[in-house]
Design a protein that fits this description.
The protein is an alpha/beta fold and about 210 residues long. Helices cover about 40% and strands about 20% of the residues. The strands form two sheets. A five-stranded mixed beta sheet has the order 3-2-1-4-7, sandwiched between helices. A two-stranded antiparallel ribbon has the order 5-6. Helix 1 packs parallel to helix 2. About 25% of the residues are buried.
Length: about 210
């Protein structure tokens, strides 16, 4: 079965697993310069429509050219626009440092709108071709592919893992898509070595991986 994985964001990574080999692509919509007097929370409907149309075209070609038979998409994160981060409070007198949690602004409204909209477009296009879709939680594929569900820098770790496994990538987002399709394959085939795994590398390459 030919599997596909999507890491949908402002820059979207797409990965295909076929015959034990993972290949990747990257979709990036056009950028738009915002007027400094414009409300940063405002959405430009025409611009978002253009990105949606281009992504729909990308999905159609990607699915047809690669003959994808099943797709996994990273489950969109909750739409709350804040996130917590643990930082070191250097002003603390306790042992010189203290860990505190701070609240930071999360993704912008336009980013959230785009992720949800593009995810729906991807699902609709797969439905058109009768291709089943599975959402995989971010922490799940990171745990399976990286060994850590909450790494400090997921994109960097994904790129490093792809390098170790000999997976060619076109972007950091494509590296994450590789992790998603790798996890889908593992979920479907839990008792067989995953494609591009260390066990499938030639001995000389495997011995030098570290």
């Amino acid at each position: 079965m030919i599997l596909g994985g999507l890491d949908i964001a402002t820059t979207t990574g797409a990965a295909v697993m076929k015959d034990g080999v993972i290949t990747t692509q990257t979709f990036k919509g056009p950028t738009r310069k915002r007027n400094i007097l414009e409300d940063e929370k405002a959405l430009d409907a025409a611009h978002e429509a253009k990105i949606g149309r281009l992504f729909e075209d990308f999905m159609r070609v990607w699915l047809m050219e690669n003959r994808v038979e099943m797709v996994a998409i990273e489950a969109p994160l909750p739409s709350n626009n804040v996130r917590q981060k643990t930082v070191v409070d250097t002003s603390s007198t306790w042992a010189g440092h203290a860990l505190v949690k701070t609240t930071e602004k999360g993704a912008s409204l336009s980013s959230i709108y785009r992720i949800y909209g593009m995810s729906m477009i991807a699902c609709a296009m797969c439905e058109r071709f009768n291709i089943p879709v599975r959402f995989i939680a971010q922490g799940t594929w990171r745990k399976e592919f990286l060994g850590n569900g909450r790494p400090g820098d997921a994109k960097k770790e994904a790129k490093l893992m792809c390098a170790r496994l000999g997976i060619g990538i076109s972007s950091a987002d494509a590296a994450e898509a590789a992790g998603i399709v790798w996890t889908l394959n593992k979920q479907l085939n839990p008792y067989t070595p995953a494609a591009n795994s260390l066990f499938n590398l030639p001995p000389t390459v495997r011995d030098n991986v570290g």
